[in-house]
Fold these 2 entries.
Entry 1:
Amino acid sequence: MEIKKGIGVSPGVVISTAVVLDAEDLLIPERHVPAGRTTDEVTRFHQAIASAIAEISALREKMIAEAGKEIAAIFDVHIGILKDKSLLKQVEVEIVKQQTTAEFAVSIVMRRYSQAFLKMSDRYLSERVKDIHDIERRLLHNLIGQKHYDLAHLSRDVVIIAHDLLPSQTAALDRTHVKGFATDVGGRTSHTAIVARAMGIPAVVGLGNITSEVNSGDTIIIDGHHGVLIINPDEEQLVEHRESEKRRVVVETQLAELLHMPGQTLDGHEVALMANIEVPAGIDEAVDRGAQGVGLYRTEFLYLTREDGEPSEEDHYEAYVDSLRRLHGKPLVIRTLDLGADKYTQSKQANPERNPFLGDRSIRMCLHDIPMFKRQLRAIMRASTQGDVRIMFPMISTLMELRQAKMVLYDVMEDLEDEGLPFRREIPIGMMIEVPSAALMADSFAKEVNFFSIGTNDLIQYTLAVDRTNEKVAGLFCPAHPAVLKLVRDVIRIGQRHNISVSVCGEMAGEPLYTLLLLGLGLTLFSMNGPDIPEVKKIIRSTSMEHARQVARRVMSFDSERQVMHFLREETRKLVPEAF
Ligand code: PEP
Ligand code: MG
């Protein structure tokens, strides 16, 4: 038995049998063809291109149906590259001039292409390199006549262990049999992770050398929530995970009855449960789980799923109107772009930053690129007449930053007015509290916004000095740390004092362990991943507010996260024995 820690990029727990994929780097030998046969090679090349376009188009359709058109856009880029006239020309020239095979010409030209991107040493562009590698392999397999994407036709349940999965491989996975996957490399915002989340496949990435530590046939537990993979678990762990699986099934079956019940304590205190989404299609599943709206729309994913330049105002607008249509009047909190740090775009800078989490990310990046910021704000304001839209600024760390962001927003309103375009001037304006300076200054901020949303993922990272994406210090990343809890408590209190709404939209809001505590601290709005809603709702419906307050008082008297977690686990189990 071995436990490995990586980065959980798509939630859910699975136990299944491993299939380890070989790193398949095809080595294509240089082979000469007689001058008279180069035309045949060019024809073979064009046939391979045509088949590749047909295959990717089919994959794109599958993605549109399963995950929406924003995710499918990843494959528009693939098709674009396959139709790129200059690329086609370069391969033809290579075949004819060097008198070589189509395979060899493809491998040479594609490698040249990806090296050009690699030289730019940029995470966003390195994602593009992966796409090029993906296309190259598809073309080569078509030329060699090998069918390689057989992960689409499995006959039994498996989890896939691979060095890396290409976005198209992930999209082609047979959802009925592939129960999860784990990879050596990767991060939360890689295309593979985005596709996995959109398809609901539990996944852990960034596991280092997992392909050499697992053998096909091993029993594997993948916990996509906590970023954990267990190789050949012992009996105790198997029992524990099967029990948790059973509990999940019980919760699932209770889902239908819970769905239409309010998030309300036994003594009648109402709590709103909302969803975090990355793409509009995510709303449908969240609403099916009982979401009363979207408490956090991570709009940066509009950038992360496309590579053919930045989204236009129309792209933003369409995504927001699509979301509102799916919400049927329920609220939509649109968070303005939170790019940078782990969410690319070093492409905006020639030199990558040394400390991207402390660098030009999020609202700072927007204030450095006003035209980009305005494009998004215009789209949000135009969409504001079509539903309950609220706007939220991320990563605010100083009052000046908030004021500047609001000024840009008011500028946009003036422009729209001059153009005669309708918008809702009284749009609620909120900010995220995810930097300790914002939490400590909440009293001042509360006078200038309509709501707060506590982003615990970043608040924990910045309070405890723990990089949230670094698996080496993942054990130190803990919502139960008393320092974090004090900040959360104070922000909720200050919100109450100023009569503005406060929510928590970090992962902590969806962890059943913290439900009683957050409730007892006075939180009335939780925003989380759709699948977490039923369990959190169940806990809320099983306690009185009085009891939750007592729990919170006790928790705030502890000075170690272990005490906090132990106490919360015990208290929650008393109420909902099937929790955890
Ligand atoms: C957070 O930081 O808690 C948050 C919700 O934002 P993100 O995870 O997108 O940084
Ligand atoms: Mg954040």
Entry 2:
Amino acid sequence: MRVLVLTDNEFIYNQFKELIKQKQYRESIFDFFFSESNELFKKKYFSEDFKPINLKQRIDEVLSKYQLVMSLHCKQLFPEELVNRIRCINVHPGFNPYNRGWFPQVFSIINKLPVGVTIHEMDEQLDHGMIIVQEKIDTFQWETSYDIYKRIQDLEIKLLKTHLRSILDNKYELVSPASEGNINLKKDFNSLCEINLNDMVTFREAIDYFRAMSFLGYKNAYFYDESGRKIFVDINLEIETEKGCGKDNE
Ligand code: 0FX
């Protein structure tokens, strides 16, 4: 069978390419694409084997050439016509139906809803279709969004290793999501970023907020100082390894 794989995530792209080297996948053809808006991939990967695609503009071609489409973290919304006419599988870094959409672990740290990984068949709504497999992860108070996201990615690869064969063979039992759940969009994340210095919150809420907004390589939470300078804030959390806290436990 011929499979279109659409990914804008470097870790998952590299891991997935390794996975399909296994003998059992040799008879399948995987064609890799990324989104046109992915400037990093254009610079780093553009080639005959890995190039941009605009799904909306190429529906007919996709339908005629492929038997399966897989979305492994991608920046574009799948057109309704496509998800209704060909099996499209989404590997989603969240535990559906909770915190569907943007950056699930960020919102889960704040609203305490479950987080994990869901592999599901796509329908017209975002992160919404029937579930093939999903797994929750426990999170801990010392973990930032970054720490949790790294574990989510590892779990995505683990679940792909276990379930790719049955996904290709279309041999799995589908389960309905528990409810419609809730959804967060990019604008919800953006509106989290500005800190109102006069907000009254508990330390617990403040620490959870900063955990949610701390992700290595991204500047998220910020406030303005008296002279109007924008100040970004990150949190650093460390578990005690030996005894005590403070200056050398004297
Ligand atoms: O691979 P991915 O999680 O994102 C991709 C697509 O780009 C995205 O549009 C799609 N919704 C998702 C399923 O797949 O990588 P990312 O670098 O966009 O985000 C990874 C994490 O980085 C995110 O969970 C939170 C953090 N992040 C990301 C951005 C862009 C931030 O903390 N701040 C940011 O500004």
